[in-house]
Structure formats: C-alpha cells, structure tokens
C-alpha cells in the first residue's frame, strides 16, 4: 500500500492545473481556470479548475476531484498508477509500506498468477478471432443481426468453433490446471476435459484498465443457455463488471448518458446503429458495485428492461440497489420497451431516432418508485394506505439526505393521505427503531460489521474517530439515514445546524486555522451538541498533512459523508472570493457562540433565584466574562 502521508505530500507538490492542462485547454476566468469538459460533449466551457483549492469541477456533468482523481477518471488509471505517474512528474519516489517477507512473496505470487491468467485468455482470444474469419455460419449470423466487420472489430468479437477440445490447437498442455482456473476448460467428474465455449459468438470482457478478464458467449443454434459467461476467476467477478463500459467509454462521455441493457448483443447492436453509450450486466442482477461504476462514468443512467412482468421485477430490484446512491445532481431513469422488442431489435426495426424518443420519455426513478408502490396497494382504503406506508418506510429511509429525498417524501405523503410533517414523524420513529436494532446487533460479540466499506471503527475519517457522517449502506438494507431539515441535519438525534456547517466550511477552506485552535475554543465548541461535528472535523483535519481542501478530501474515507460534504463545500465556494481575514472570522464566530451560551447560563441562574453562594459567584464570573467579550 502507498502510505497516506506520501499521498498528502504529493498533493502538496503537484498542481492540478498542470495535470489537467495536459489534456484540457484552459483559460483564465477570474480566480479559476475554465475549459471544455473532457468528460462530456459541450460547446461552452463549464469545466472549472481552482488553483487554490487544487480541485476541478464541471458544472455541466458534475465531474469533480483532485489531480489523482482526474488521472483515474480520464485515463482509466488505478489509484496506485495515478499516484506513481504524478510522483514521477515531480521527481518523487513512491514508497511502499513495510510488508513482511511473507506478504512480499504473496504479492509477487498474485501478480504472477494474474499475468498467467492474462496470457492464456489472450491466446484463447487470438484463436477465437481467427476462427471467426474462417466461419461462414458465424459471419452470416452477425450479418443477419446487422453487425458489420468494423463493429465486430471494435468489440473484438470471435467464434469458439464446434470442436469440443479446440483449444488444444493453441495450448500444448491441454491438461494444465490453469485452463480450468481461467474458465476456458471444464473438467468432468470422470476426468475428461472439454472447452467451455462451443458454437458461440465470443464477446471478450474488458475491465476498466482495458485488460481482457473473461468471455461471454452467445449460442447461434439451438441449445441452452443462450448466454454463457466465464466463471468466477482471480480476474473476473461478474457482479463487479459491465460489458461495453471500456469499448463505449467515449460514446458515454459524448452523450452524457449511459444506457444499461440486459445482453451483449444489445450493446453491440446499439453501437452498430450509432448508439454507442450502452453497457450490459453479465447475466446477473444490478449490484451496488455496478451503480458505483456507472456513476463514476456518467451522472445520467437509464436502465432498459422489457415491459413484461419479469422486466418490471428486474427494474424494481435495480431501483432498490440505486436508492442509497441517490443525489440531487444525478438522474436515474427506467425505460420499458414494448414486449416484442429488446433494445437491439427496436433500433433495427424502428431506427435510432425512435429509440432516442423512447429514451426521452423514460420514467425518472421517483415516478417509477411511486407508481410501483401505488400499484401494489388499494389506496382508497386506510388499510391499503397503511400497507403502502409499511412497504415504503425502508425504501425512503435508504435514500441519503438530499433534495430528491425531500421531494419523494412530499409526493409520497400525498399518495397515502398524510401531511409531510406526519410522514417525517413516522419515518423518524421507524429510523430510530432501526437504529436501536442495529446498535443492539453491533453489541453482540460475534455480530458482523454491517458497513464493509467504512474504516474498522465505523469512521469515514479514518481510524480513531466516530462516524457522524455515516454513509447509506453499500447494498440495499433498511437503515436510518441522515436527515436534513430546514434547521440543519441530524443523525442519531444530534443536530448539524447551518452554523456548524459554516464553521466546517470556514475551517476546510482555511486549513491553517485548524492548527491554531486553542483548548479554550474547543471548550466553547463543547458547550452544545450541535458543534460535535465541528470538534470531530477538527480532530480529523489535525491528523492529516493536508495543505488544501482537495488533499483533505483525498484523505477522507472514499464515498463517506464527510468526503461528499467537503466536495459540496468546495463546489459551492468555487466563485467565492477569499476572506480577507479568516482567522478574525473564526475568532468572531467563537466569541458569539460563547456570548450566547453565557447569556443563556445567566438567564438560567436568574430564573433559579440565585439562592446559593455558588450560584452568585457563578453569576459574577459570567458577567465579568461577558464584559470581556464585549
């Protein structure tokens, strides 16, 4: 692993303007720089780079991040690859955290294993490509589906042949266990071996780095299953991969949208017709990992399903997985085609223009959610509305605090004849009960951790801190989520007021203040629970070596609420002028907090009658402190 201290040091030396400027032509625009966004097709520049915050943001498509993030998203580099590339540019050598000899041996073995799997897959792919050129049946099938040689080359389509052991032609040792581990050969119970893929059009599956990790095969004659994937291997996990994401990456950026379909041929067929922004799940239901990958690719996702019962059930499952990832700056939609069509056949029969019209009329997630809930219950009777509310509680509670959640709550309240306030009260009781159940489960000695993605102590900041900025679960599971009302936000009964958020924003934008905070100021922040988040943010920031806001975001647990909040603060402050004296602003805010608290204490003492000597001494001390503050 790369030490976090090195990453912070690297971000202090690297200029995001230089990194982005290698790929995007930037021009001065006030305190920031502007350019055409490299992540979507635009004619007017909405892509902004901040030299002071070391952060980029596109106000058109929502892409944002640090210098490291930019390389990862724009070039497809992994985190270590991006760090090493930036380090090389500034003359730094990436250290590796000290590992035991056993760990080093294991790392070398894993790398060697990946390389061996990669090599056998590449050799198999070369054979499949050669066989396609020789097979008139396979070529005829592709032509029948409207696929040209150019499109077949783009997606690397091949043909497996008819031979049960055709891969003997390319592998001298057909009995090599590596062939079964890579998913190319199956060994039966009696020890006989044969090729996994026969009589199938072959679709190579490429990961985000452009590496071949597995295959999908579509049979062209009679037989089952129609589609067959590689099994789980050290390289391939179908619940984490999306077919076509690599091949259509440019089309997705240009369209500003990604279309999720069900089959390989849909992806290829749509690309043939000029709709080059589709991907497909690999014979499995949509997973949280799929959603995370899709949202890194585009902020507009359309799921396409058949309009029959099975299609709607699949869409409902996808909706459930999407709920914890909802944000105000993304669009999730559902497209239901006529029963007699899949996306490929629809476009071939009716044309791309008709398909784009269907896309424009796709249902937004909120509409599909409410329509589906309404269709399952009789809303003309109290019992039906109560049953609908019972089903909706865990769904709404899975949505993170956001404007879209508020909109859904308001619309759903009308659906079940409640006021918005009544619904919020009901959801608060449900979330409180769910939190108590979760706390009880965590108290059990052998209870497994619910949130696999957080730090071991549950903190998105990193080891050693609590988790007030807890993120919604990575997979759908009823769990109370943060609630943001007009007065602020709350989590587990604690308030995050607008004042607390302003204090965090002030500190995050002026990190030098964090290291000058006095014990007395921390004591002032301890007067009220509403400033607990501020104290925990200070503790988090003081442990980092961050010199600017982007470095602080990089240090936060990826995807955590603190990272999301800091990102939001960064984006909101892009056009703000720097404060002339941030230290004075901070000190003034702390004085006001202390002043208000002292006045409240004074009123409480007076209301109590000042009957004891201790109360009278306390009253005098408060007056003296108030005079000093004034």
UniProtKB/TrEMBL annotation:
The keyword Coiled coil applies. Its EC number is 2.7.7.101. A zinc finger (CHC2-type) spans 37-61. Keywords: Coiled coil, DNA replication, DNA-binding, DNA-directed RNA polymerase, Magnesium, Metal-binding, Nucleotidyltransferase, Primosome, Transcription, Transferase, Zinc, Zinc-finger. Gene3D superfamilies: 3.40.1360.10, DNA primase, catalytic core, N-terminal domain, DNAb Helicase, Chain A, DnaG, RNA polymerase domain, helical bundle, Zinc finger, CHC2-type domain. Residues 256-338 form the Toprim domain. The keyword Magnesium applies. InterPro entries: DNA_helicase_N/primase_C (IPR016136), DNA_primase_core_N_sf (IPR037068), DNA_primase_DnaB-bd (IPR019475), DNA_primase_DnaG (IPR006295), DNA_primase_DnaG_DnaB-bd_dom (IPR013173), DNA_primase_Znf_CHC2 (IPR036977), DnaG_bac (IPR030846), DNAG_N (IPR013264). GO terms for biological process: DNA replication, synthesis of primer. It holds the Pfam family DNAG_N. CDD domains: TOPRIM_DnaG_primases. Residues 107-134 form a coiled coil. GO terms for molecular function: DNA binding; DNA-directed RNA polymerase activity; zinc ion binding. It catalyses: ssDNA + n NTP = ssDNA/pppN(pN)n-1 hybrid + (n-1) diphosphate. Residues 438-459 are annotated as: Disordered. Its cofactor is Zn(2+). Binds 1 zinc ion per monomer. It comes from the Bacteria. GO terms for cellular component: cytoplasm; DNA-directed RNA polymerase complex; primosome complex. Belongs to the DnaG primase family. Monomer. Interacts with DnaB. RNA polymerase that catalyzes the synthesis of short RNA molecules used as primers for DNA polymerase during DNA replication. Contains an N-terminal zinc-binding domain, a central core domain that contains the primase activity, and a C-terminal DnaB-binding domain. This is DNA primase. It comes from Advenella kashmirensis.
